[in-house]
Design brief:
globular, mainly beta, six-stranded antiparallel sheet, about 40% strand, 2 helices, about 180 residues, about 5% helix, 13 strands
Length: about 180
């Protein structure tokens, strides 16, 4: 298992050791011991699984008060996965990381608590699975609009398929300070 750093401190890609032969492949998608050895020691309490069609954009979501670290991967298809640093006081506030994840490359992305997260489905269909370090609490659910001009994420799409909730999310500059996680160096 290999940890690959990204442009944002704390966010990394995980490249698993894959064993392949004529029967197919095998790899450990999660091992608490191996993840701890590469600096990821979150205790994950919930797994989520979403299936979406091409052009679906989910996000940018986060939880206030009970923030969630996430470990994400694609088991069918391909997505553009994005994380935005929204921690007030962070030297990287408002910056993002965007990476392609696919079932073929088997890469995972680790996103620490305090980042907004979303993804766009690039293939005809994708299945996206992710672990969370805390449970989902609807009362703490927050988000940032996907096309915030100040963040300027190059999604490569003008009109994605969005939920009603995601269409009505605010720009980062409009979010009250109390609704942003705090940076802890």
């Amino acid at each position: 298992m290999k940890r690959i750093e990204t442009a944002l401190t704390g966010i990394c890609l995980i490249e698993p050791e894959v064993f392949s032969d004529e029967r197919g492949f095998f790899f450990e998608s999660y091992s608490e011991k191996k993840f701890a050895a590469i600096g990821i020691s979150d205790h994950f309490v919930q797994d989520n699984h979403a299936r979406s069609v091409k052009g679906t954009l989910r996000g940018l979501h986060y939880q206030i008060n009970r923030p969630q670290a996430k470990l994400c991967r694609v088991i069918q298809g391909e997505v553009l996965d994005v994380a935005v640093d929204i921690r007030r006081g962070s030297p990287q506030f408002g910056q993002y990381v965007a990476v392609k994840l696919s079932a073929e490359d088997k890469l995972q992305i680790y996103i620490p608590a305090g980042f907004a997260h979303g993804y766009l489905v690039l293939s005809e269909r994708a299945e996206f699975v992710y672990k969370c370090s805390d449970f989902y609490y609807p009362e703490f659910d927050r988000g940032i609009i996907w096309n915030d001009a100040d963040i300027a994420i190059p999604w490569g799409i003008d009109e994605p398929l969005l939920s009603a909730k995601d269409r009505s999310l605010p720009r980062l500059a409009s979010v009250p300070t109390r609704d942003l996680p705090e940076f802890h160096p």
